[in-house]
Structure formats: C-alpha cells, structure tokens
TrEMBL record:
It is found in: Preautophagosomal structure membrane. This is Autophagy-related protein 9. Phospholipid scramblase involved in autophagy. Cycles between the preautophagosomal structure/phagophore assembly site (PAS) and the cytoplasmic vesicle pool and supplies membrane for the growing autophagosome. Lipid scramblase activity plays a key role in preautophagosomal structure/phagophore assembly by distributing the phospholipids that arrive through ATG2 from the cytoplasmic to the luminal leaflet of the bilayer, thereby driving autophagosomal membrane expansion. The keyword rRNA processing does not apply.
Length: 738
C-alpha cells in the first residue's frame, strides 16, 4: 500500500515549508526531449482527474452525439421556460380571457388567441421591475451556460478522439461496451501513452480514487457522523436536511470553490495538515460558510422562482396522469451517501439501489395506519360516486362540460381518487417486516446493527424512511431549499467547522501518482478495519487510526473486489477476504443466511448436473440457443421468495454493474461453490461447473450473499459467539471523534 499519512500532531510545522509536488508536474529530462516526438498527444495529462471524469461521463452519456443533443436541448429548454413564463405573466390579457371586464362580457364571438396575447411592444412596455431583474439574471445565466456548453463539447470532442485513437473504441461500438471493458483499455492506454507521469502502471483503485476523490470524502463525512445536519422542528422532531442546494454549496465550500481547503483537485492545502493550525482554519472556514449563507439568502427569491417553475412544468402533468406518484418513494440524497460504498461509481450505485427499490417499497407499505386507510376508503367511495355520475351526464349530454368549472371538478376528483387509492394497501399483502428488510439489505448492503430483529418497530421504519423518503416530501424539501439552505449554512454547518477541519487532517493521505485522497478510499483493513467485522488486529495508533461505522470499509472492499475482480489487492485485504471465506465454509450448516440463499442454488446447480452440462453443450453448438441461455432473463437458478431475485434488468450495456458472470475469487459463493466441488468426483465437477458461470447474475448473487453473511457474522460477534472477540466493548460508540 503506497501511501503515507498526512497530518498528525507530531508533524506540526516541520513540513510547513516543504514543497508539495503535484502528481501532474511534468519533469523534463534528456530522454523526454529526445522522445518528445514519439509521445502521443495524450501523454502527461495536466489534470488527470478531470480527464478520467470526462472519459467516464462520455461512456455513461452514450457518446458525443448524445452529449451534444443534451447540451443543445438544455439551452433551448432554459430559453423556453423563461420566455414562456414571461409570456404568461406579462403578455396575456387575462380579463379578456376570463371575460371578467365589462368590455369582454359584451363580446359574443369566440375569443381568438391573437386577441388574448399582447404584442411584444406592449409586453415590454408593461413589464414589471421584478420581471426585468429576473430576465437580466436569466440572460446572464444563459450566457454562462452557453459558454460551459461550448467548453464541454470541445472537451468531449477531444475525448471522442481519445476513445477512437487510444482506446480503439469506435462510436458505433460504444453502446455495446461496459464500463469495465473501457476501464481495462484505459489501463492498457496508460502503459502505451503514459497518461500519468508518476506511475508506469495504473490500477483500478487509482482510477476510482481519481473519479471519486471528493465523493469518497462525502461518503466518509456521512459515515463518521459529521453530516448530514439534523434540525429539530417542533412537533416533527429531528429532521435530516440534505437537499440538492445544500450539497451544491457544500462541494463549493470544501472542494471546488474559491478559498476551499483543496487548492487543486488533487491537493489539500498544506496548512490543513498541521494540527496547530486547526483553530485558525476553523475560524476561516466558519467565515467562508457565513459568506456562502449570505449569498444564498440574497439569491433565494430568484432560486425559489426557478424551483417553482421547474417543478410546475416538470411534474404537473405527471401528477395529473398518475396521482399516486406523490405517494411513491425515492432514495434520499442522504440515503444515497449512507448506502454508497467507497469507490462506487454512479452507475453501479444506481443499479444496486434500483434492485432494492421494490423490496424497500414492500417494507415501507407493510406499515399501515388503519385510520388513514379507513378515511381514504370513505373519500375514495364518495369521490368515485360523484365522478361516475358526472361521467354518465357527459355521455348523455356533452353540454354538461360547458358548465362553469366542470372540467376542473372532474380533474380534481380524478386526482383525489388516485391519491386515496394509493393509500389503500393491497389486501393480499403479507406482513413480514423482518424478511422484507432482509431483502432490502441484500441489495443496499447497509443498515444499523440495532435494526436487527426490530424491523417491525416504528423506530426502524422512521429511520429507514429518512433513507427512503416520500416523493412529496422530496418535492417540498427542494421547493423550500432556497430559504432553508442559508439557515443551515449560517447556524448549523458553521458549528461543525472545527470537526470538518479535524476530519480532513486525520483522514487524508497522499498516494503516489494520485494525490491527496480520503484514507478510507484505500480500503486498508489493516489501518481502518473494524475488529467487530473480522478485520485483522492492529497496534493501537493515534488519531488517524479511526474505523468506519456499520462495516463501511469491509463491505466496500468486498464490493470493489466483485466489481473489479482483476484488481491486485494488498496482502492484508486478500487475507481478510480469505478469512471471511473460511468462516463461510465453517458455517455452511449453521448459517441461516447461507442455508436460505443456497438451498435452491445447490439443487439447481448440482442435483441435475449431467442434464445441465448437456444443455450447455447443445446451446454452444447453436448460437441462437446459446444467446438465449446466456441472456439475463434466462437462468436455471430459481430463487425462492426467501431471497431476492438478482436477475439483471434489461438495460443498456453502459449501465451494466458487474463485469463477469462468474463470481469473484474471494466471494463467499465462489468459495462454497469450489468447496462443494472439491468434495465431488472430477466427472461431476466437469459437468457441473458451467451452470454457475453461465448464470448472468452470479457475481451480483455472490456479492449479495457475501454481504448478508458478513452482517450475520457481525450479529454473532455482538452476541458473543466468537471467543477471540470477547474483549471488544460492544457499548463503545462507533462514532469515533475526528
């Protein structure tokens, strides 16, 4: 593990004047001068972080053409929203439209559109002052967005050339390639084109550290309890506020804005690594946060207007068509950070949370407030009866629609019916919260240990509701975010300034060829591992030896291994995963997780080995049959209702999560699979090995089983089933101070 720790109390100033070398500085040598003509234009990228981010985004956004269309339509959409809003506010003669003026009441003919809409000259002459200010700000912002769009298109055109020339990926081949395949070619391109000057070879972890440098800090801040901010609201209790506006300001304050602790994308300012400077830096950060809060307060009216317009234009038709959408749920901004692994890319997180969406909805809907249900049934019956009568009347005589506000009444009744029916639970649903929460855990991988065996309680439901929030709550949060964000910045985030400074100092390491990164992102279980999650015993260290909560580091290591099976991990990480495998083999007969998860897998894979082998042999001789057999929707494994289905959804290759069909070498399923074959004869082995490898979701299944088994081990530790961990104090607060 090639990194060194910054920042403990012992280095108080000894390195203050030491020159900090950027990992992107180009040192000219005589050999470089002689070979400069041989170097490609991709050699020695000045900002490798930004370059890798563009490479990743180019793949996820499906190429240059789609990116160009998105940028152009984004500019056009902004112009449409502004111009259409000004048209509605300033240029429509509403007294004439509604026939509310005496002159309009005397008009007997049908009113034409050109009579209602005023001329541009009249609109400009009658424009309100606030409208003028909004228009000027909109023009300035549009020019800024246009300049950014031009810059992005120029950058992505350069990335398009990089894909074509350096990675040998043509535009028409891109939709059929996974990110894992692109990443493997990127590693080869480093050896050929020397993208990074300080390392001859890059690893998968290096790329992920660059892509997610600041995202890993955010995940760690949430895991260590520094974020999110909890605000006590009368009658509502503690509320977690982590809106998109607050996230945007947080990233500017800590990472990318002026006066941020990171003066470059890859370098934490030297003074932040010195313990004696913590008080001074905390005061500076507090003042910076205050300035951002004041700026947000001044801009809040304009941001609020934009939020209202965006929500109105974007969701009104959807709510009218599907009223139940307000009662549906989404993973909250806080939940996405709490459930995110270190070094987990966006598409991988989205795939994982999408798989866990239905189990999460089933769990939350299993909690029923019967008083609300009875009220919804009554209102639904009453509104339905009125709506039915109006429908019959319109069938009998369509002039009923000409009655004043009749269409409004029918539309409102339809929306009310949709909302009420969404509150009435399915009469065939089975209430089994423990099993449902277990299904959620299999995909989301994280939950507090205190939730175990308490899934039926309101406490757990409320906690999970903060992670999996109602959509109407999300809409309200975002709508009032312009006014809430200044309060959070000025009165809540400022109080955590010292805590943030200590966090950055204690959990930042300098990695050769990568720069300053969050130390947790190195996945070093020997340094940051938790003994209660079976991490290796380590010598007691100073402040920088903190551990993560809820097994974040250990589960992140397991996940990164499954998504990057070719990654050459350090010996201590390999030893840790091997120890988990050994425990799985020892507990095959006693582990409820392994028994439930593998029961039908074993029957499907091993009981009919010869027939499965012949099926595969026949399929390989027939390309059409083989493609059907290997498709995500065709598998010989039928998971029981006691375990979540892991079949991959039919999405484009760019959204694919795991690169291989076969499990990772150090996964729990792969170990048990090989262990069972070791006890069988060679004939049986040769005929039975194929099914698991051709199972398209075997890697995802392996990760899910590994996660559940690791949680089961943690639960056994808590109840004292492992003697070697008896010395651990379970009452110790995991939220170690920064």
């Amino acid at each position: 593990m090639d990194y060194r720790t910054q920042n403990n109390e012992e280095n108080d100033g000894s390195d203050e004047n030491e020159q900090v070398l950027s990992p992107f500085v180009h040192f000219e040598t005589h050999e470089d001068e002689n070979n400069s003509e041989k170097q490609s234009k991709w050699s020695h990228q000045q900002d490798l972080d930004d370059f890798f981010v563009q490479v990743y985004q180019y793949h996820q956004k499906h190429g240059f053409f789609c990116i160009a269309i998105s940028e152009i339509f984004g500019l056009i959409q902004f112009v449409f929203i502004v111009s259409f809003t000004i048209l509605l506010v300033q240029c429509v003669d509403y007294p004439l439209l509604f026939r509310s003026s005496p002159a309009a009441r005397n008009i007997t003919d049908k009113i034409q559109i050109h009579q209602v809409i005023q001329s541009p000259k009249q609109c400009l002459h009658n424009m309100y002052r606030i409208t003028n200010w909004c228009l000027i700000l909109s023009i300035i912002y549009w020019i800024y967005r246009f300049a950014c769009a031009v810059y992005h298109l120029a950058s992505y055109f350069n990335i398009r050339s990089f894909y074509t020339q350096a990675l040998d990926i043509k535009p028409h081949d891109l939709p059929n390639m996974t990110w894992h395949e692109v990443q493997q070619r990127l590693l080869i391109a480093q050896r050929t084109h020397h993208l990074c000057i300080h390392k001859s070879n890059l690893t998968e972890l290096d790329i992920h550290n660059r892509l997610l440098r600041f995202k890993n800090y955010e995940v760690a801040l949430v895991n260590k309890g520094v974020l999110p901010l909890r605000v006590h609201v009368p009658f509502l209790g503690d509320i977690i506020s982590f809106t998109a506006g607050f996230k945007f300001n947080l990233r500017l304050i800590l990472f990318s804005g002026p006066c941020a602790p990171f003066d470059q994308r890859w370098h934490l300012r030297q003074e932040y690594k010195i313990h004696s400077q913590r008080e001074v830096l905390a005061n500076q950060l507090s003042r910076l946060i205050l300035l951002y809060g004041i700026a947000n307060l001044l801009l809040s009216p304009f941001i609020f207007i934009w939020q209202v317009l965006n929500l109105f234009y974007g969701y009104t038709e959807l709510v009218r068509r599907e009223p139940g959408v307000l009662g549906s749920r989404r993973w909250s901004n806080y939940g996405r950070l709490y459930l995110r692994h270190f070094n987990e890319l966006d598409h991988s997180l989205n795939q994982r949370l999408n798989r866990g969406y239905r189990p999460a909805m089933s769990y939350m809907t299993s909690f029923v407030n019967y008083s609300i249900v009875e009220t919804a049934k009554f209102v639904s019956f009453t509104a339905g009866a009125i709506f039915a009568v109006l429908i019959v009347l319109t069938i009998v005589d369509e002039d009923v629609l000409n009655v004043e506000h009749m269409l409004t009444l029918m539309t409102g009744l339809g929306v009310l019916l949709g909302v009420c029916r969404s509150l009435i639970p399915d009469e065939n649903a089975v209430f089994d919260p423990e099993q449902m929460l277990q299904l959620v855990l299999a995909h989301t991988h994280y939950q507090p240990d205190s939730w175990k065996d308490h899934a039926h309680t309101d406490y757990v439901q409320a906690g999970f509701g903060q992670i999996f929030q109602l959509k109407y709550v999300y809409f309200l949060e975002e709508l009032f975010s312009p006014f809430v964000t200044p309060i959070l910045l000025c009165f809540h985030l400022r109080r955590k300034s010292l805590q943030i400074i200590d966090f950055l100092r204690n959990y930042t390491v300098d990695v050769q060829g990568v720069g300053d990164v969050c130390s947790f992102a190195q996945l070093d279980v020997a340094k940051h591992g938790d003994l209660k999650w079976f991490a290796p015993v380590r010598a007691k260290q100073g402040n920088d030896a903190g551990i993560t909560n809820d097994g974040k580091l250990e589960l992140s290591l397991m996940h990164f291994h499954h998504t990057n099976p070719k990654w050459q991990m350090p010996k201590q990480c390999e030893a840790y995963l091997e120890k988990i495998q050994e425990r799985a083999v020892e507990n095959m007969q006693t582990s409820s997780v392994l028994q439930q998860s593998l029961g039908q897998v074993q029957r499907s894979l091993y009981n009919d080995a010869q027939s499965t082998s012949s099926m595969i042999s026949k399929a390989r001789n027939d390309p059409n049959t083989y493609s059907h057999f290997a498709s995500p929707n065709h598998t010989s494994i039928q998971m029981s209702s006691q375990y979540p289905s892991t079949s991959m959804p039919q999405t484009s290759a760019s959204q694919a999560d795991l690169p291989y069909r076969s499990p990772a070498p150090f996964g729990v399923l792969s170990k048990i699979h090989s262990q069972m074959f070791d006890s069988s004869n060679s004939t049986f082995l040769s005929g039975s090995m194929a099914p698991l490898q051709t199972f398209s979701s075997a890697a995802q299944l392996d990760m899910n089983i590994s996660c559940l088994f690791m949680h089961e081990l943690r639960h056994k530790y808590k109840h004292g089933e492992y003697e070697e961990l008896e010395h651990i104090n379970e009452d110790h607060d995991d939220d170690t101070k920064c």
